[in-house]
Amino acid sequence: MTRRPLSRFNPAQPGAAGMKAAATGLLVIMAVAFGVARVLEPAHPAAGWIKAFAEAAMVGGLADWFAVTALFRHPLGLPIPHTAIIPRNKDRIGETLATFLKENFLIAPVVARRMRNIDLAGVAGRFLQAPAGEETRIRRGASRLIADLAESLDDERLGGLIKGAVSSRLKGMEVAPLLGHALASAINEHRHVPMLEAAIRWMARALDANEELIREMVHKRANWILKLAGIDSRIADAVVDGLKKLTVEMGTDPAHPVRIKVEQALAQLANDLQTNAETRTRVEAMKDELLANRSVGLWIDTLWQKARSAVIKAARNPDAAMAGKLGDVIKSMGSTLEGDPRIRSAINQFARRAVAGMAASYGGSIVKLVSETVRGWDARTVTNRLESAVGRDLQYIRINGTLVGGSVGLVLHLLDRL
Q: What is the reported pTM?
């Protein structure tokens, strides 16, 4: 792949060029002033002061021009020793810069100390509660990226991976103790009562719907003597009435013996699910058979497709997602992050340790990247970049050198006259 050339445009360049022209123009003015003063000095002795100032200013300006130019190139193109310092030493400059970064910024204690004053949890909390302005653009950009990634991934392969992961997780999970614990918790907190009463009501409705079936079964099982005497009908009536009375009493009397027996059986089942090896083995076998059923696989696939579609839809329209229940959940998370000191402290501590760990693990790689990047630049690129960055200040050095040199020349001229 062809590497693109590094851009050399810098907004500071016009300013640097203007200052360079000003410094050079000042030097030319001093040269002109020196020439004019030298011609006028025999007739006008006061011109000697101008001559002394201009002469020393030229010396100072030329010396500083040489020093500034020698940093970046050979003055007048002459290969004078110890000039073009930056192009000749760019590799060493890169290594020195990289070492400086590593020793002063990319070591774990320094990073941890700087991170101590950064409240990442608070920033994240405020962002989640009311993203606006730049944050809205960031959120929309992240949402588009998530949607594009979700759509670009191979649906069949990823779906199979998700289903396989879910199935493997369920197969490796022993569900019997979980079911037993859940049932025991429901019994202890009396959350099983509504379910038990619903089962009793269902049994009463089933009894009403199948009353004729019960009577027919009693009639078929009665012998001919009972049928001849008409006792089978009275027996059927007694059975139906007794069952109806049982369901009514169970539904209205929490202390009914049959109801107590059912609750005891549920409690025993909860205990067996947690402690009885045989019961746990049967439940695990039932779970494996259920997972092997093709209908369960189709159900898991449907869940995956719905989840994927929901993620893409929410990512494509983040404003609508933030306005609904998902937005309420996210805002609640943001409020918790910003308002709970314990959670904020834990998250900030985790972030601090993570960043410090990254600095310790990858600081050397970052240093190597900086060093190799500078080494990969050509000498002209390095020269132009550094000269654009500090060129304006360097031209001020030339101007100051010219003026300071002229001032020194005046002082020397004064001493000479005295």
A: 0.40
